[in-house]
């Protein structure tokens, strides 16, 4: 599977584009739309480079979710898991109770696991709490036309 526009919009809403490297709240050097691999202090990029890094990262995390998940997912469930992996890493997803519940077909239980991943640097972060809630809500949203405009509804637009 590949991430839909809804999933991409969700990720980008939390991974705001930054053209100068910065330390995220967890102390990890970050650039562009949340790229962390190979990022060092003082690095910069253009908007076009940020978009290219995002595309490369997105493919990496899509592949990770596709390899780790052993059950059928709908598009919204896949998008939510890619957003989670994009933020926490595919290794974190791979060892999580979230993934265990997904692979056991316990989608309700899996949805409740997102909220447990709201800490950065050992502290609960409001942004991560909002992101996990958005991912959980998307994960629970059926793909039946009701998910169209999901992001706008989430933001109250």
For the sheet with most strands, the description reads: 2 strands, antiparallel
Strand order of the largest sheet: 1-2
Using DSSP, what is the number of strands?
A: 4
> What spatial form do the alpha-carbon principal axes imply?
globular
Quaternary state of this entry equals single chain
Mean of the pLDDT scores?
93
Q: Please report which band the strand proportion falls in: under 5%, 5-15%, 15-25%, 25-35%, 35-45% or over 45%.
A: 5-15%
CATH topology name, in short, is Lysozyme
| Rg calc | 15 Å
Number of helices: 8
* Portion of residues within helices: 40-55%
Termini separation: 28 Å
Q: Supply the number of structural domains.
A: 1
Spell the H/E element sequence. HEEHHHHHEEHH
Q: Would you state the CATH class? A: Mainly Alpha
Q: Stretches where pLDDT falls below 50 for ≥5 residues?
A: none
**Which structural category do the helix and sheet elements fall into?**
mainly alpha
Q: What is the CATH architecture term?
A: Orthogonal Bundle
Question: What descriptors fit this protein?
Answer:
157 residues, mainly alpha, Lysozyme, two-stranded antiparallel sheet, 8 helices, 9% strand, globular
What does this molecule look like?
The protein is mostly helical and about 160 residues long. The chain has a single domain, classed as Lysozyme. Helix content is about 55%, strand content about 10%. The protein is built from eight helices and four strands. The strands form two sheets. A two-stranded antiparallel sheet has the order 1-2. A hairpin with a 5-residue loop joins strand 1 and strand 2. Helix 6 runs antiparallel to helix 7. The longest helix is centred in the middle third of the chain and has 22 residues. The model has no long low-confidence stretch (mean pLDDT about 95).
């Amino acid at each position: 599977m590949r991430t839909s526009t809804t999933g991409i919009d969700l990720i980008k809403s939390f991974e705001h584009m930054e053209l100068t490297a910065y330390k995220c709240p967890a102390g990890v050097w970050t650039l562009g739309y949340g790229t962390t691999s190979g990022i060092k202090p003082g690095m910069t990029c253009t908007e076009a480079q940020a978009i290219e890094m995002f595309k490369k990262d997105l493919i990496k995390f899509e592949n990770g979710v596709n390899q780790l998940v052993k059950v059928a997912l709908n598009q919204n469930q896949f998008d939510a898991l890619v957003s989670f992996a994009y933020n926490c890493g595919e290794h974190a997803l791979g060892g999580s109770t979230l993934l265990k519940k997904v692979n056991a077909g316990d989608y309700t239980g899996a949805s409740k696991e997102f909220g447990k991943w709201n800490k950065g640097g050992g502290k609960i972060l409001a942004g991560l709490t909002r992101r996990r809630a958005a991912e959980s809500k998307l994960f629970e949203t059926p793909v039946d036309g009701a998910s169209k405009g999901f992001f706008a509804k989430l933001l109250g637009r």
